[in-house]
Design brief:
The chain is an alpha/beta fold. It is 44% helix and 17% strand. The radius of gyration is 18 Å and the shape is globular. It has seven helices and eight strands; from the N terminus they run E-H-E-H-E-H-H-E-H-E-H-E-H-E-E. Strands 3-2-4-5-6-8 form a six-stranded mixed sheet, sandwiched between helices. Strands 1-7 form a two-stranded parallel ribbon.
Length: 192
């Protein structure tokens, strides 16, 4: 069966390269936990962070402690706020807090609001960068991000699935979409 997905390694690598290029060494990551079948997604991101950051990597900068479903059951519509608040508390309690945070776009929107409420300025005090999709990005173009075109992936998948139905002997194909980079206004060099 044909497969299509985001090229996550390329996307996260692009974000890390941009932040490292600005001088960031302590870069954190936020995402929800995954069920065992999808844990490899988080494991591959963690490996990429370790490889890019080297000695500056710490497991403490990798915040993947909650299930979105369970959080929603407990906190309703406030689940992202509750999760991001816990992430901020965790990161700011570290001996060396991160100077940049990478997260999915919905988390970044709430993260920026909460950081501002706590007196942090984005990007002067901390940079924030998002993994996003075209449909959600158009509402938040100011957030620095990598943007995947989910419609292109859907059309590729549908076209190749139809081809496979017409000709079952076709070998399976896999399309990993590379994102585009959106500079936005939420990243800057870290404070000295």
């Amino acid at each position: 069966i044909p497969q299509t997905d985001c090229d996550h390694d390329y996307g996260y690598g692009l974000m890390l390269d941009k932040l490292i290029g600005l001088g960031h060494k302590h870069i954190a990551f936020c995402e929800y936990s995954r069920i065992p079948e999808y844990q490899s997604y988080l494991d591959s991101i963690c490996t990429l962070f370790k490889n890019k950051l080297g000695n500056n990597f710490s497991d403490e900068y990798f915040f993947t402690k909650g299930s979105s479903g369970k959080l929603y059951e407990s906190f309703g519509e406030d689940y992202i706020k509750v999760y991001m608040d816990a992430a901020i508390k965790h990161f700011m309690s570290l001996p060396q807090p991160p100077t940049a945070i990478i997260a999915p776009l919905p988390m970044c929107c709430k993260l920026i609001q909460l950081l501002n409420k706590q007196g942090f300025q984005v990007p002067q005090d901390i940079s924030v960068m998002a993994m996003s999709y075209k449909y959600e990005h158009r509402y938040n173009p100011e957030i620095s991000s990598v943007v995947f075109d989910e419609y292109e992936m859907i059309f590729w998948g549908a076209k190749h699935l139809l081809n496979k139905l017409e000709n079952p002997a076709l070998p399976p194909e896999c399309y990993l979409q590379k994102p585009i980079f959106n500079q936005g206004s939420t990243i800057a060099p870290p404070k000295k």
